[in-house]
Structure to design on (375 residues):
């Protein structure tokens, strides 16, 4: 041990995980003294959180609870960092239309990991805190320090081949689709109360495959207001080996539930329209019926056709778009009865905003990137 200086030994120790460091701490008096260095544990916390999307900006200072960085790393970050981010409830129950998201994020200053579940409301969805994981590794409710019967019964990585996603087609069973749509990571909770009051609930990590990039468009989550249903979330992604963009419902409604495709856009059908071709829904339909493949342009005019309806006033801010494509959208009666396709136009304004014009009923859905959900 005298051969190498302390700085080198600390560098070597930095590659160990929490359990290994606990063993080293208890086995060697010299190492135990060196591991009292707050900077060492701060860097361990920072490196561990850098590996996940829910990465906060850390500063080397005492947090409000005075929790040492060592305890934060060993008891909280190291064993539970895999939770950070978003999970979607896995279910084969066709009556659960809205779907649920579970998000975990860390508040370093408080020494806590929060777990929140989405709930449907007339105004869209909202998150309610259900779980607090403390720096001592204990669980508690949000309203008190009383521990409640909750536990993680399973965490596994599945060996599902990525190519199986290509076998899924629009309007197929969404419970099968969800096995492949996000990632190969699954977790089960016991005692986590959800809308269905299940004793054990299963969730899949919300992390799309990197192979879903198409024409430089990486998978991203967008939020929209769709008529009377309120706010919804859609994952915009491509499909391997196909030049298509798909909008998959993350949080849905009684007409088109979560896990179903809201729209499918054909990137081999670009459109370039002038202002007069968008004057009314009738002229737009006529242009669509006589559609000819056009060369993509960097910009083209955009206007809301007379006769079209929309719920988000923000769409009126745009008078140009960077691209427009033909496609099709999913429509259905209540309880996803008799789903059918209608013609659509996909209109991209910029990296963060796009619209989909559903020709049946001429509704314009406006979508904005959800910056809180990243991969």
């Amino acid at each position: 041990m005298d051969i190498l200086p302390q700085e080198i030994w600390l560098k070597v120790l930095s590659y160990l995980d929490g359990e290994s460091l606990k063993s080293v701490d208890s086995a060697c008096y010299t190492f135990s003294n060196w591991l009292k260095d707050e900077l060492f544990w701060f860097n361990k916390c920072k490196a561990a959180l850098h590996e996940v999307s829910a990465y906060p900006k850390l500063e080397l200072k005492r947090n409000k609870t005075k929790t040492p960085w060592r305890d934060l790393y060993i008891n909280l970050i190291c064993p539970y960092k895999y939770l950070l981010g978003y999970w979607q409830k896995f279910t084969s129950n066709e009556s659960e239309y809205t779907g649920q998201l579970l998000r975990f994020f860390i508040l370093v200053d408080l020494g806590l990991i929060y777990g929140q579940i989405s709930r449907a409301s007339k105004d869209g969805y909202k998150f309610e805190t259900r779980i607090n994981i403390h720096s001592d590794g204990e669980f508690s409710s949000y309203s008190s320090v009383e521990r409640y019967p909750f536990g993680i019964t399973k965490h596994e990585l599945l060996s599902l081949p990525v190519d199986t996603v290509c076998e899924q087609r629009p309007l197929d069973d969404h419970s099968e689709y969800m096995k492949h749509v996000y990632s190969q990571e699954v977790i089960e909770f016991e005692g986590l109360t959800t809308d269905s009051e299940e004793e054990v609930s299963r969730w899949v990590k919300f992390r799309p495959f990197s192979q879903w990039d198409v024409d430089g468009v990486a998978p991203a989550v967008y939020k929209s207001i769709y008529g009377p249903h309120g706010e919804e979330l859609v994952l915009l992604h491509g499909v391997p080996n196909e030049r298509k963009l798909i909008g998959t419902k993350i949080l849905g409604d009684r007409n088109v539930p979560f896990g179903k495709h809201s729209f499918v856009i054909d990137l081999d059908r670009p459109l370039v329209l002038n202002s007069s071709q968008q004057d009314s829904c009738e002229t737009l339909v006529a242009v669509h019926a006589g559609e000819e493949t056009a060369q993509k342009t960097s910009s083209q005019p955009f206007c809301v056709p007379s006769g079209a309806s929309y719920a988000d006033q923000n769409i009126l801010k745009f008078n140009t778009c960077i691209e427009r494509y033909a496609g099709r959208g999913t429509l259905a009666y209540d309880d996803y009865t008799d789903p059918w396709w209608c013609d659509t136009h996909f209109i991209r304004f910029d990296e963060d905003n796009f619209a989909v014009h559903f020709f049946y009923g001429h509704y314009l859905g406006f979508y904005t990137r959800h910056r809180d959900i990243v991969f």
User: Anything to note?
Assistant: Residues 178 and 259 are 6 Å apart (CA to CA).
